[in-house]
């Protein structure tokens, strides 16, 4: 093979690889975690900083509170990374 053909071949390989990667990224499963509810209890968290908002979650969802999270809840660090504000 001449070097010109090699380069063409390498380019095609690169393009194919890139397309495959994009294909997999766009096929990622949709987000299924529930967003932060839009109601009286949660409305005020929509506008404040995430860090500040997260300090308040425990007052209702913390251990021993009314809306305590179930045992099976995933790791709870940074609530709003998973429960998006919409
Ligand atoms: C004033 C009390 C209160 C505070 C503070 C609070 N919540 Fe809630 N939350 C509730 C109640 C009550 C429910 C159950 C009723 C509902 O679905 O709205 C609930 C439900 C939820 C749900 C489940 C929604 C669903 O569709 O099942 C999520 C997620 C949630 N809260 C996240 C948060 C996060 C994150 C914070 C902190 C930013 C927070 N909450 C702060 C009272 C509170
Ligand atoms: C790693 C991602 C993640 C983080 C961080 C997280 N959650 Fe969740 N949460 C989930 C998933 C997944 C569920 C299961 C139900 C669902 O699909 O929403 C859930 C469910 C809930 C529910 C509903 C529970 C029920 O009784 O059905 C509430 C309320 C909730 N989370 C509040 C919070 C609060 C408050 C924090 C921060 C202290 C938090 N979450 C942090 C992923 C997360």
Describe the structure concisely for a colleague:
This protein is an all-alpha fold and 86 residues long. It has 4 helices and no strands. The chain is 51% helix and 0% strand.
Radius of gyration (CA) equals 23 Å
Give the CA-based shape.
rod-shaped
Q: Name the quaternary structure.
A: single chain
Number of helices: 4
Proportion of beta-strand residues: under 5%
> What does the average pLDDT come to?
92
Number of strands: 0
Structural overview:
The chain is built from four helices and no strands. The chain is mostly helical and 86 residues long. The mean pLDDT is 92. It folds into two domains: 30 residues; 43 residues, no CATH class. The protein binds heme C (HEC) (2 copies). The site of one heme C (HEC) has 18 residues, from helix 2, helix 3 and helix 4.
Descriptive terms for the model:
single chain; mainly alpha; 2 domains; 4 helices; 0% strand; rod-shaped; binds heme C
Question: Which helices and strands occur, and which strands form pairs?
Answer:
Blueprint: H1 3-26, H2 40-43, H3 50-61, H4 79-82
Bound molecules: heme C (HEC) (2 copies).
One heme C binds next to helix 2, helix 3 and helix 4.
């Amino acid at each position: 093979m001449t070097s010109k053909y090699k380069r063409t071949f390498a380019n095609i390989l690169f393009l194919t690889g890139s397309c495959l990667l994009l294909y997999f990224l766009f096929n990622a499963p949709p987000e299924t975690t529930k967003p932060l509810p839009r109601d009286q209890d949660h409305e005020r968290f929509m506008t404040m900083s995430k860090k500040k908002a997260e300090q308040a979650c425990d007052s209702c969802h913390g251990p021993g509170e009314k809306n305590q999270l179930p045992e099976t809840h995933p790791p709870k660090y940074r609530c709003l990374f998973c429960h998006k504000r919409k």
